[in-house]
């Protein structure tokens, strides 16, 4: 599968700094978005540490299958699934270690949404409220389930997705890297069809735009990943740009 992609991160219109980080390693077919949290620029440190650590582990396991797996192998998922899952847990350890190194890093944390592509299979891994969407035939499907307080309320039937986007507690995540040692990583496999597009994004996009609005902007770009990615960031900013906005848009061709 041939992959075209465009990655964009933007500070938005309200925040002073950008605590989001993104990483693309085209050689390994690795794509990562992370959204950091913590005062005094610590969120930025957490998200950067996480994406770098994920890339480091994925590169390390790319050509050496004899590597020891620090958390054991998960028999229920593929080799590449294990690479990505372990990379995210490895990143969690790196962030956790850093929180103990400096007092200003105490309490910092980050979300992660990551894709590692192998042939026509996309391995998806995520923690927190950064999302991965599939866009296929003008239809948008969220492939990840947010680890957030508002999502728990939606599942419980207490609030609607529209209410969640403007809820005062919309930024509260229930799972993040940097929290505790035995981090649970949600893993999923997506079977790619030619023409599929995947969107990785931070909540600075999804708190500003409903799924249908996102699908509309992507449809307008007619498969042009650069136009789609830049259009999404521009739309989120036009609606207020209250948070940092990060998008990685992928398109697959035979
Ligand atoms: Ca955010």
Main attributes?
single chain, 254 residues, alpha+beta, Phosphatase 2c, domain 1, 6-stranded antiparallel β-sheet, 5-stranded antiparallel β-sheet, 7 helices, 11 strands, 33% helix, 27% strand, binds calcium ion
Distance between the termini: 5 Å
Q: What do we call the CATH homologous superfamily? A: PPM-type phosphatase domain
Q: Which residues form runs of ≥5 with pLDDT under 50?
A: none
**Chain-averaged pLDDT:** 96
CATH class placement: Alpha Beta
Q: How many strands, which pairing sense, and closed or not: the largest β-sheet?
A: 6 strands, antiparallel
What does this structure look like?
This protein has 254 residues and is an alpha+beta fold. It has one domain (2-147, 176-253): Phosphatase 2c, domain 1, CATH 3.60.40.10. The chain is built from seven helices and eleven strands. The protein has helices at residues 42-62, 79-101, 149-155, 161-166, 203-206, 211-220, 225-238, and strands at 2-10, 20-25, 30-37, 109-110, 112-118, 121-127, 131-136, 139-142, 186-191, 197-201, 245-253. Strands 2, 3, 4, 5, 6 and 9 form a six-stranded antiparallel beta sheet that branches. Strands 1-11-10-7-8 form a five-stranded antiparallel beta sheet. Helix 1 (42-62) runs antiparallel to helix 2 and helix 6 crosses helix 7. The longest helix has 23 residues, at 79-101. The radius of gyration is 17 Å and the shape is globular. It starts with a strand and ends with a strand.
């Amino acid at each position: 599968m041939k992959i075209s992609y465009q990655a964009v991160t933007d500070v938005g219109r309200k925040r002073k700094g950008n605590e989001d980080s993104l990483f693309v390693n085209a050689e390994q077919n690795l794509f990562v978005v992370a959204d950091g949290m913590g005062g005094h620029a610590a969120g930025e440190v957490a998200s950067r540490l996480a994406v770098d650590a994920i890339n480091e582990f994925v590169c390390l396991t790319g050509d050496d299958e004899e590597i020891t797996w620090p958390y054991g192998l998960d028999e229920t998922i593929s080799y590449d699934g294990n690479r990505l899952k372990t990379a995210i847990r490895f990143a969690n350890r790196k962030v956790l270690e850093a929180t103990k190194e400096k007092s200003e890093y105490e309490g910092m944390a980050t979300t992660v949404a990551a894709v590692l592509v192998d042939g026509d299979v996309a391995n998806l891994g995520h923690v927190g409220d950064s999302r991965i969407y599939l866009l296929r035939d003008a239809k948008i499907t969220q492939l990840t389930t947010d680890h957030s307080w508002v999502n728990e309320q939606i599942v419980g039937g207490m609030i609607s997705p529209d209410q969640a986007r403007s809820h005062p507690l919309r930024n509260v995540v229930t799972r993040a890297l940097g929290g505790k040692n035995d981090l649970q990583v949600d893993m999923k496999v997506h079977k790619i069809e030619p023409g599929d597009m995947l969107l990785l994004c931070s909540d600075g996009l999804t708190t500003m735009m409903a799924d249908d609005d996102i699908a509309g902007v992507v449809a307008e770009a007619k498969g042009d990943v650069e136009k789609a990615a830049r259009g999404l960031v521009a739309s989120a900013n036009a609606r207020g740009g209250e948070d940092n906005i990060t998008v990685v848009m992928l398109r697959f061709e035979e």
